[in-house]
Amino acid sequence: MIRRFFLLVFLCINEVSWGQQYVISTLSGGIPPATPSSAAAASIGDPPRVTVDAAGNVYFASLHSVFKVDGQGILTRIAGTGRFGVSGDGGPAINAQLAFPDGVAVDATGNVYVTDRAAHVIRKISTSGVIGTFAGTGKNGFSGDGGPAANAQFNGPTGLAFDSAGNLYVADTDNSCIRMISPDGTVVTVAGTNARDFGGDGGPALQASLNQPEGVAADLAGNLYIADTFNNRIRRVAPGGTITTFAGTGFPGGSGDSGPAASANLFLPTDVAVDHSGVVYIADLGAVRIRKVAQGIISTVAGNTTTDQLPRDGAAALSVRIGGPTGVAVDAAGAFYFAAGSIGSGSGLTVGDFKIWKVTPDGLFSTLAGNGYNSFSGDGGPAAQAQIDTPAGMARDSAGNLYFADPAANRVRKISTDGTITTVAGTGVAGFGGESGPAIAALLNQPMGVAVSPDGNLFVADTGNNRIREVLSDGTIGTYAGNGNAALFGDGGSPLDAAIHAPRAIVFDPNGNLYIADTLDHRVRRIDVSTYTIDTVAGKGQGFAGDGGPALNALLNLPTSLALDSAGNLYIADQANGRIRKVSSNGIISTVAGTDTVFTGDGGPAINALVSSPRGVAVDGAGNVYISEPGENRIRKVTPDGAIATIAGNGNCCYANDPGPATSAPLNLPWGLAVDSTGNVFVADSGNSAIRLLRPTSAGAGQ
Fold first, then answer.
1. How buried is residue 453: exposed, middle or buried, by Cβ count under 10 Å (0-12/13-18/19+)?
2. Which residues pair with 175 in a beta bridge?
3. How far, in Å, CA of 506 to CA of 525, rounded?
4. Residue 193 neighbours by CB distance under 10 Å
5. Are 664 and 658 in contact (CB under 8 A)?
6. In 95, 189, 410, 669, which residue has its Cα 20 to 30 A from 491's Cα atom?
7. Nearest of 150, 145, 154, 157 to residue 134 by alpha carbon
8. What are the φ and ψ backbone dihedral angles of 191, each rounded to 5 degrees?
9. 666: cis peptide before it, omega within 30°?
10. What Rg do the C-alpha atoms of the chain give, in angstroms?
């Protein structure tokens, strides 16, 4: 027995010594906006809903957090860390992790309730700032009616609302029902049969069918209003329990204004609110407007689909085109608020505008919260305190500065060796412009890749513009390659005359030749620095073929990342083929990692391992190859002898164990990679809006 114990210890010690271990931490991002701060100046993410308390304070959830805007326009984070997770019950709400919080409601004493949608629970933030789970077990399902709400199961709950008696109504969306939690904590269903259907008007609400309702509201008379989203209706449950259609015919559309609400067409209504006089407001997502029902007559009060004028402070609400609204609330003074979130119904009909809008009683727009950017802040300050959006490709210069492309933010940013973050290209607005001017005043369009030339200039794969842009040492920008057309053209000629199609990655060799992942042409192309001509070096079309032969005869499938080793071998993240391909210095292509199996292979040959949709590749000085796998939320490493192992990520989403052992930490769609001379690995953790750092803890780091 003793010999067996020491054998196990020996094996465990050697298992650690055989493989490089890493500690993970966050270098930048993964945080909400700093508060307290001006709500209108903050980057608030993509809030799906909004609510107002009796004092006029406005609440919304976004960025895995809950926020409050007071009467002076000051934004305060009241719950959440900005990082996805489920933790913190019994402690300060601002230290807790939430999982896509959605609907918010406030009770008469000021306690705040929020649907933690991905966790399938309702959480409560007390007036003292302590968070706890109020309803739900955390396991999705349907159970618990007639008993304590804390023991019940919910399934993707969204909207919340209180009535005047203190009952809390929950849109239990994926159960297609409305449930009520009484002041004593008992939960019951008040509408819906759990069947995703339409039926039951004129009868008991408990026998009626709803179809994924997302919003709920109660008036002072005891009527309950339901945004029956996928039935394209607003339903009303009378105090006696009878259900009827209040607005909408069931046919999707936006017609019927100035007539009876029940004869109008709605299109995916996602939220509903009611004022003290019984006027009902509807977030009509698909019809792209806010509608109002007063005395049974429906009208539009915000949004105009016949104009291209966008919302702005001071504009008339009926004169502008708004994003599809997903949340609506009304205050005691008659002003209403709406959010145009891209995640409200999951319909894909709209993208968020990253604001909460207020419409005054006289019909004028003003910004309540949000600067129009999803997640952007911190320029000129510490990177650790900055917001970033969706980091993609990364590169380091010879001084150790780190550059990363942020396609969702339409920017390229730099983290200096002293930890300061700045924007070096892009304004945040998608487009093409600014040639020969300052790069920080230029327009980019979803840039996904960056590289630094041997002479220190920054190059950008301006993916949506089908161009490679160059930022000179004086900060001016120009096009280096690509004529802007999404096509394949120009081999053997000038790069400026060539067409490239959605380039996602670039890399330089020591001589200054630039390699381009011409992603949607399924090729890798090279610009010869001495002749300034462009040619294809790998790939002749889409598919998988060619290993063991000339790279020019091979088939690739969405090459998305490139790396070069010290011997001149080119590595390609062949994403849709699930492989890392290598083009040797003499032009022969082979697979170094990936095969057609289930996730397996750690500790064995990389060519026998599944590599799930590789999106990033990097090589260190010792010849180790690093791979990001968004499909498995892992970072893997292939040693020079061909063995593969996971060095970060436990296969789960999203954010935990930071700092801590890297293989115990979840990741969220990792993308770009970079590695320095000491073996530190930089990871663009795109789904977590963060740059993560992997530090080696044992011998064997790359040189």
1. middle
2. none
3. 10
4. 18
5. no
6. 410
7. 150
8. -160, 140
9. no
10. 28
Q: Under 8 Å CB-to-CB from 243, ≥6 apart: which residues?
A: 191, 200, 201, 202, 203, 204, 205, 208, 235, 236, 237
Asked if 331 and 381 touch (Cβ cutoff 8 Å), the reply is no
Query: How far does Cα 598 stand from its chain's mean position?
Result: 27
Q: What is the pTM of this model?
A: 0.91
Name the 3-class secondary structure at 185.
Answer: coil
Long-range contacts made by residues 148-155, C-beta under 8 angstroms, separation at least 24?
148/185, 148/186, 148/187, 149/122, 149/181, 149/185, 149/186, 149/187, 150/185, 152/179, 152/187, 153/120, 154/120, 154/121, 154/122, 154/179, 155/120
DSSP classification of residue 484: S
Q: What is the pLDDT of residues 164-190, one digit of tens each?
A: 999 999 999 999 999 999 999 999 999
Quick one: residue 341, left, alpha or beta (phi over 0 = left, psi -120 to 50 = alpha)? beta
Cα–Cα distance, 701 to 623 (Å, whole number): 11
pLDDT reading at 598 higher than 80: no
pLDDT of residue 192: 98
Contacts of 253 (CB under 8 A, 6+ apart): 265, 266, 267, 287
Residues 466-495: pLDDT tens digits? 999 999 999 999 999 999 999 999 999 999
Q: Each residue of 131-160: pLDDT tens digit? A: 999 999 999 999 999 999 999 999 999 999
Residue type, 84: F
Say which DSSP state 551 is in.
G
- Average per-residue pLDDT in the chain? 93
Nearest to 394 by CA among 452, 349, 481: 452
CB 63 within 8 A of CB 32: yes
Q: Is the pLDDT of residue 5 over 90?
A: no
Can you give the pLDDT at residue 478? 98
What pLDDT does 334 receive?
A: 95
Strands across the sheet containing 280-284:
269-274, 280-284, 289-294, 297-302
Both tokens of 19, joined, read 């493989």
Q: What is the mean pLDDT of residues 546-564?
A: 98
**Residues 352-375, buried b or exposed e (16+ Cβ, 10 A)?**
bbbbbbbbeeeeebbbbbbbebbb
Which pLDDT belongs to residue 698? 67
Nearest to 604 by CA among 612, 594, 614, 596: 594
Q: What is the dihedral sign for C-alpha 133, 137, 141, 143?
A: negative
Q: Which residue has the tokens 């291209």?
A: 308
pLDDT for residue 656: 86
